[in-house]
Every structure is written in structure tokens, then in C-alpha cells.
Amino acid sequence: MAGKIKSIHGIYKKHGRDAFLDAAEYYSDHVNRGSIEKTIDEMESRWYDSSHRQTEAEKMVEDYNNGLTVLNNPSLACADTGQGMGM
After folding, report:
1. pLDDT in tens, 23-35
2. pLDDT value of residue 74
3. In this structure, what is the dihedral angle of CA atoms 38, 2, 67, 6, given to the nearest 10 degrees?
4. DSSP conformation class of 82
């Protein structure tokens, strides 16, 4: 990968609104389809793991940089269940 993304805002800027929101739904139950800012704020303030070591935003950035999101690999999408990876 040419460079690492440092924030979920960077992922949004690179992939656009709809693709970002679709991918964010795999990490958060608090995606706001009407507002990128609200979605990012929610993801940055909610824990992804029960040990409170990583926020939803941090997990999405980590997975993105490791090629593990639907943005990197569309075959990771679970269209039938509505559930994403890692949830």
C-alpha cells in the first residue's frame, strides 16, 4: 500500500460519502446517513472492543490499512445477513 490512512476522515475523503457510510456500518451501529460528521464523532467516541482499548474509528482505520475492509476487498461484505466482519 502506498501510504497509510491515519483517520476515518481520511477514508471518507478517499472513498466518498456513500462508500464510507456503507463500510462504517460494519463497525458501528451509530452510522448517521445524514451526516458524515455525526458518524465520525460517534465512531471516535464509542469502544469497538469490550476491553476499551480501541474505538470503532481506530478499528476501521487499522483494518483499512491492513486491507480488511469492504473498501479494500468487496468480497468481505455480508449482503444477506446485514452483519459485517468482526461484529
Report:
1. 999 999 999 999 9
2. 81
3. -30
4. S
- The CA distance from 84 to 35, in Å, is 21
| Helix (H/G/I), strand (E/B), else coil: 40 | helix
Q: List the one residue out of 12, 34, 38 whose CA is nearest residue 23.
A: 12
Residue 71, pLDDT score: 94
pTM of the model: 0.83
* Helix ranges restricted to H, the chain: 8-15, 17-24, 36-45, 56-65
> Measuring CA to CA, which residue among 44, 12, 16, 50 is closest to residue 30?
44
User: In angstroms, rounded to a whole number, what is the distance separating the alpha carbons of residues 18 and 62?
Assistant: 20
